[in-house]
Amino acid sequence: MAAVAPGASVEIRIPPFAAVQCIEGPRHTRGTPPNVVETDPRTWLLLVTGMVSLAEAKGTGALTLSGSRAGEIDHWLPLFDVG
Protein backbone atom coordinates (compact mmCIF):
# COMPACT_ATOMS: atom_id res chain seq x y z
CA MET A 1 0.00 0.00 0.00
CA ALA A 2 2.84 2.39 0.83
CA ALA A 3 4.19 1.93 -2.72
CA VAL A 4 0.92 2.94 -4.43
CA ALA A 5 -0.19 5.53 -1.85
CA PRO A 6 2.99 7.02 -0.37
CA GLY A 7 2.73 9.24 2.66
CA ALA A 8 2.22 9.01 6.39
CA SER A 9 -1.24 10.33 7.24
CA VAL A 10 -2.94 6.91 7.61
CA GLU A 11 -1.57 3.87 9.41
CA ILE A 12 -2.72 0.40 8.38
CA ARG A 13 -2.27 -2.23 11.07
CA ILE A 14 -2.44 -5.96 10.41
CA PRO A 15 -1.32 -7.46 13.72
CA PRO A 16 0.95 -9.22 14.36
CA PHE A 17 2.45 -8.91 10.88
CA ALA A 18 2.55 -5.31 9.71
CA ALA A 19 1.96 -1.64 10.32
CA VAL A 20 2.34 0.63 7.31
CA GLN A 21 1.95 4.37 6.94
CA CYS A 22 0.51 5.61 3.67
CA ILE A 23 -1.45 8.39 1.92
CA GLU A 24 -0.11 11.91 1.59
CA GLY A 25 -1.10 14.48 4.18
CA PRO A 26 -0.19 15.50 7.70
CA ARG A 27 2.56 13.28 9.05
CA HIS A 28 2.29 11.59 12.43
CA THR A 29 5.49 11.11 14.41
CA ARG A 30 4.67 10.12 18.01
CA GLY A 31 2.03 8.10 19.80
CA THR A 32 -1.12 6.78 18.19
CA PRO A 33 -1.72 8.24 14.74
CA PRO A 34 -5.00 10.11 14.16
CA ASN A 35 -6.05 7.92 11.20
CA VAL A 36 -5.85 4.16 11.70
CA VAL A 37 -7.14 1.15 9.79
CA GLU A 38 -6.88 -2.13 11.67
CA THR A 39 -7.85 -5.61 10.56
CA ASP A 40 -6.78 -9.23 10.76
CA PRO A 41 -4.52 -10.81 8.10
CA ARG A 42 -7.31 -12.78 6.40
CA THR A 43 -9.54 -9.73 5.99
CA TRP A 44 -6.61 -7.69 4.65
CA LEU A 45 -5.94 -10.32 2.00
CA LEU A 46 -9.62 -10.32 1.04
CA LEU A 47 -9.54 -6.51 0.76
CA VAL A 48 -6.39 -6.24 -1.35
CA THR A 49 -7.62 -8.91 -3.76
CA GLY A 50 -11.07 -7.37 -4.12
CA MET A 51 -12.87 -10.35 -2.65
CA VAL A 52 -14.50 -8.12 -0.02
CA SER A 53 -15.12 -4.37 0.00
CA LEU A 54 -14.05 -1.93 2.68
CA ALA A 55 -17.72 -1.30 3.53
CA GLU A 56 -18.41 -5.03 3.87
CA ALA A 57 -15.40 -5.58 6.12
CA LYS A 58 -16.34 -2.61 8.28
CA GLY A 59 -19.97 -3.72 8.42
CA THR A 60 -19.07 -7.16 9.73
CA GLY A 61 -16.70 -5.74 12.33
CA ALA A 62 -13.67 -7.38 10.71
CA LEU A 63 -12.09 -3.96 10.15
CA THR A 64 -11.99 -0.78 12.20
CA LEU A 65 -11.46 2.72 10.87
CA SER A 66 -10.60 5.62 13.14
CA GLY A 67 -9.98 9.17 12.05
CA SER A 68 -11.43 11.26 9.27
CA ARG A 69 -9.01 10.00 6.60
CA ALA A 70 -8.82 6.27 7.35
CA GLY A 71 -11.51 5.40 4.82
CA GLU A 72 -9.44 6.95 2.02
CA ILE A 73 -7.62 3.63 1.58
CA ASP A 74 -10.70 2.50 -0.35
CA HIS A 75 -9.46 4.61 -3.28
CA TRP A 76 -6.48 2.25 -3.73
CA LEU A 77 -8.28 -1.07 -3.21
CA PRO A 78 -8.03 -3.68 -4.52
CA LEU A 79 -4.26 -3.78 -4.93
CA PHE A 80 -4.28 -7.00 -6.98
CA ASP A 81 -6.54 -8.47 -9.63
CA VAL A 82 -7.00 -12.17 -9.00
CA GLY A 83 -9.88 -12.55 -11.44
UniProtKB/TrEMBL annotation:
Chain ranges of the Bacterial SCP orthologue domain: 1-79
Domain of life where this protein originates: Bacteria
Pfam families: SCP_3
InterPro entries: SCP_3
Protein name (Swiss-Prot/TrEMBL): Bacterial SCP orthologue domain-containing protein
